[in-house]
Write a structure and sequence with these properties.
Number of strands of chain B: 0
Structural class of chain B: mainly alpha
Helix content of chain A: 25-40%
Number of helices of chain B: 13
Shape of chain B: flat
Helix content of chain B: over 70%
Strand order of the largest sheet of chain A: 6-7-8-3-9-10
Number of helices of chain A: 10
CATH architecture of the domain at 6-98 and 171-250 in chain A: 3-Layer(aba) Sandwich
Oligomer: heterodimer
CATH architecture of chain B: Orthogonal Bundle
Number of strands of chain A: 10
């Protein structure tokens, strides 16, 4: 039977570079409209794990992946699966805001559509407006859509990148520490935006900020040295962790 | 060991101040002596070339010895054709070679290619001319614009490969990943995001490449060869400004010497303008990229 609510099903996923194993057999089920926070100390494999989910990990030299990861029952790593197709279904927001250089604000948001062949102007313009509104950036940029994307402030750039991802309307969005390069006010705006987006999209967010995880997520996964130590409802993980290691990390004993 | 001096001793040392001044003076002298020769060349060429420059220089053919007047219109036109030919061949090879090295540049092929390109940039231009002479001019039994353009393109493309590779590498990896993450195929990411993002800098590289070949004489001597008439066709000898300057300069006639100076002035001005435009492109582009 097909479980429509099961978005991502990951079984014994292992990944690394060359001889180094960075993700050591992680299994995890992620359901529709979940907002999952991945926490853990630096180098614990949470970013690598995230990058396996849209097959971006393999873009780095020497990278390898083993195990199984399914998106809507489709194996991401099956032979013949086109990574381009996978990435169109799983959006990603990066740590550093990275608008495309020499492209206007409008072109940045439209890039995912226009470069992939959807050229109908009126449609693209509608999508751009809709996504900028969704990313809570429309009011700030509607009069200067032709200005370069890089002319915006860091926080605005990050919201632009979120709008760019929304434009391809992926059912899942991965966020790799999306606020770690931003000031507190921009961070608050992005968090607000994430809370709004979660009504429609499944979001997996890597964060170093435990308050952030506690504030916005409804499920939290704690990674340590490449292993998934604990995965459960955020309230549970933060108040009554099942594992000793989780408790030590959350109370600040290491990491 | 615990420091025995106080910060005041360091701050007030006059010796330190003197050394600072001395360093500044040495650097300034060196900088000025780098600029001065250029300045003298400019002044000399302008002084000798400008008076000989007139409207006829741009519009008429060279006249026979002893007959006053005449110009280098055919050479100007020929140079334009040769540089265009060289660019048509050299720019695509250069840009896509650079794209290859920057985006797919791993492994043996890239290593060899990078090495070859490095070697090519330092091959003397006369050698390139000789090479084209033996593989194009000798078999076809004629000097031709094709041969000249080919020689120029060989001088141009290694330079464009290098600059393109360098400026594409300045586009951070995470920009490429952002493109890939949108489900855009790799080749489109490279073309529509990476190359497009670096286009102003790539253009600058191309313009510097053009400026470089516009003044080349040696590779044209036995490829395009030159003549004293209007260019007929690409399969025939083609006059060019640098070669014309060369042949006038080594002639024994004062009238021709003056014309050579005028040509030199014109050539210098054109190359200078090309460089200037290229630099302006860099400056215009910098602010938006660093913000």
């Amino acid at each position: 039977m097909i479980n429509k609510d099961l978005v991502l099903s990951i079984k014994e996923l292992r990944a690394g570079f060359g001889n180094a194993e960075i993700v050591k057999g992680v299994s995890m089920d992620i359901h529709r409209k979940d907002l999952v926070a991945l926490i853990g100390p630096s180098g614990c494999g949470k970013s690598t794990f995230l990058r396996c989910l849209n097959r971006l990990h393999e873009e780095t030299e020497g990278a390898w992946v083993k195990g199984k990861a399914e998106l809507f029952q489709q194996d991401l790593y099956e032979r013949g699966t086109d990574p381009v197709e996978i990435r169109a279904k799983i959006g990603m927001v990066f740590q550093k805001p990275n608008p495309f250089p020499s492209m206007s604000i409008f072109d940045n948001v439209a890039a995912g559509l226009t470069i992939r062949g959807i050229k109908k102007r009126s449609y693209v313009a509608d999508v751009v407006e809709y996504c900028l509104k969704q990313a809570a950036l429309w009011e700030e940029v509607k009069d200067k859509l032709k200005a370069p994307g890089t002319s915006l402030s860091g926080g605005q750039q990050q919201r632009l990148c979120i709008a760019r991802t929304l434009a391809i309307s992926p059912p899942v969005i991965l966020m790799d520490e999306p606020t770690s390069a931003l000031d507190p006010i921009s961070t608050a705006k992005i968090e607000e935006l994430i809370m709004e987006l979660r009504k429609q999209v499944t979001i997996i967010i890597v964060t170093h900020n435990m308050q952030q995880a506690a504030r916005i997520s409804d499920k939290t996964a704690f990674f340590l040295l490449g292993e998934l130590i604990e995965f459960g409802a955020t309230a549970e993980v933060f108040t009554k962790p099942q594992e000793k290691k989780t408790e030590s990390y959350i109370t600040g004993r290491f990491g | 060991m615990k420091p025995r001096h106080s910060y005041l001793m360091l701050e007030l040392s006059t010796e330190r101040k003197i050394r600072n001044w001395a360093a500044l003076i040495i650097i300034s002298v060196m900088a000025i002596s780098a600029i001065v020769p250029l300045f003298f060349v400019f002044v000399h060429v302008i002084k000798s070339g400008l008076p000989a420059l007139n409207w006829a220089f741009f519009t008429s053919l060279p006249t026979p010895v002893g007959q006053p007047g005449g110009g280098m219109a055919n050479s100007l036109w020929g140079s334009l054709i040769l540089v265009t030919l060289g660019s048509i061949i050299g720019i695509p090879i250069g840009v896509f070679g650079g794209v290859f090295l920057s985006e797919y540049g791993k492994g043996k092929i890239a290593f060899i290619m990078r090495f070859v390109v490095d070697l090519l940039t330092s091959v003397p231009s006369i050698v390139v001319g000789l090479y084209i002479y033996s593989v194009v001019v000798v078999p076809t039994k004629t000097f031709s614009a094709y041969a000249g353009g080919l020689a120029l393109s060989i001088l141009m493309f290694p330079f464009v490969v290098k600059t393109t590779e360098e400026v594409l590498r300045l586009i951070p990896q995470h920009i490429r990943e952002a493109g890939l993450a949108l489900g855009i195929p790799r080749w489109r990411v490279i073309l529509s995001i990476v190359l497009k993002g670096a286009l102003p800098s790539v253009t600058t590289g191309i313009m510097l490449g053009i400026a470089r070949i516009a003044g080349e004489t040696a590779p044209l001597l036995f490829t395009a060869f030159g003549n004293r008439f209007w260019p007929h066709g690409l399969g025939e000898p083609m006059p060019s400004l640098p070669v014309q300057i060369y042949s006038y300069a080594i002639s024994p006639f004062d009238e021709w010497h003056n014309q050579a100076w005028a040509g030199a002035f014109l050539l210098m001005t054109m190359v200078f303008c090309f460089n200037l435009v290229a630099r302006l492109l860099i400056f215009r582009d910098k602010p938006s990229q660093t913000l």
